[in-house]
Design brief:
Distance between the termini: 69 Å
Helix content: 40-55%
Largest sheet: 6 strands, antiparallel
Bound molecules: ligand C2E, succinic acid, fe (iii) ion
Number of domains: 2
Strand content: 5-15%
Structural class: alpha+beta
Number of strands: 6
CATH superfamily of the largest domain: Hypothetical protein af1432
CATH topology of the largest domain: Hypothetical protein af1432
Radius of gyration: 26 Å
CATH architecture of the largest domain: Orthogonal Bundle
Number of helices: 14
Length: 380
Amino acid sequence: MSNGHWKKELESEELLKIIFDYAGRITIENNLDRLLLLMADMGRDMTVADRCTLWLYDEQMDELWAKVAHGAHGMKEVRVPAESGLAGYVYQTSEPLVIEDAYQDQRFHADVDHTTGYRTKSVMVIPLKNKQNQTLGVYQVINKLTREGLFTPQDVRNLSLAASYTAQALEAVLMNTEMEEAQKEIIFKMGEIGEVRSKETGAHVKRVAEYAKLLAIKSGFSEEEADLIKVASPMHDIGKVAIPDAILNKPGKLSEEEFLAVQEHANIGYHLLENSKRSILKAAAIIAKEHHEHWNGKGYPEGLSGKNIHIYGRIVAVADVFDALATDRPYKKAWEMKRILTHFKMERGKQFDPTLVDVFLENLDGFLQIKEKYEDDRTK
Ligand code: C2E
Ligand code: SIN
Ligand code: SIN
Ligand code: FE
Ligand code: FE
């Protein structure tokens, strides 16, 4: 870069053009690698830098990771401890940092330079925060290409602003990627059992997921956590894959022994999911285990009561039973809505969390809309 071919600072019109151009492409990108590349390109072009690296925090490993987008090592993944280097410093402090010469700064680690054969000099690092003010990672731009070779306060302001706008697109794609990974993992786990069989998948799990999210939102959970519950709840009955068909699809009432066998699905589901480090599957494990606990302590498998039952389990209990009663099962016909509502009022504070029953009854319209929307042929 330093052959005397300095670049000029951008005119404000040029800057605007770059921002609009990238913003349009960033908001519609749903592939994580391509999005990271676009965000890195935008950071570089906006600040007249030679390179830009977008470091993201990996909670499981407590590391920052990046795809080094610019230079000969195109899209190679690098990782550093979350306390390491300039990127780690800014991740920890959440304050922007501007440095004239990285090699004069003790916080800088040349590891990445050593890997890539690149020579870092001027550096600017900006925290990347979401709307909840959580730091997702940091933007690091390297080597300002102007004659002065220094990042300016204007660069800090511009990139901080762009970072806050793009964080939303990034979070959406990260969430999507996490869901896809979780789905792959769960499909693999189901495959491990050797048999994938459940007559209730499809519309039932979709409705339960939607009911659970609605209950969560109306109970005051954030959109983010409600989405976690929504994505995790379809796996509540995963343990049923280990219960014999003859029992699950028995047309009539179960014997005591058969019902005890079915009850095992809660623990089986929990053990299938418990070892995952993914937040979605951790939530799913709790739900699998606790969705048949009763507020009054008369449920299973542990006989937990009240708030000792995880709120996710209490939420899915209401969602699951509402759906079980409102649709046909191999062993029973769908109930009339009036009978269902009477049942929930009767079981308020017995089987179900009283607060959640109130939330359910107060928002009945929303539940009925979901029921309409995801009606399946089999239940009619
Ligand atoms: P499921 O069919 O998904 O039902 C989930 C829950 O909805 C039940 O959990 C129960 O709390 C509620 N529920 C469903 N139908 C009725 C009903 O007719 N009356 C009342 N009061 N509640 C109802 P539960 O009881 O722990 O059952 C767990 C699973 O065991 C059921 O999941 C189903 O797969 C199986 N199961 C339960 N009872 C029978 C039965 O009599 N025959 C057959 N074939 N399976 C049954
Ligand atoms: C590293 O090599 O630790 C990352 C670069 C830096 O921010 O120091
Ligand atoms: C909560 O626990 O966060 C609200 C719902 C309830 O009372 O269980
Ligand atoms: Fe169940
Ligand atoms: Fe269910």
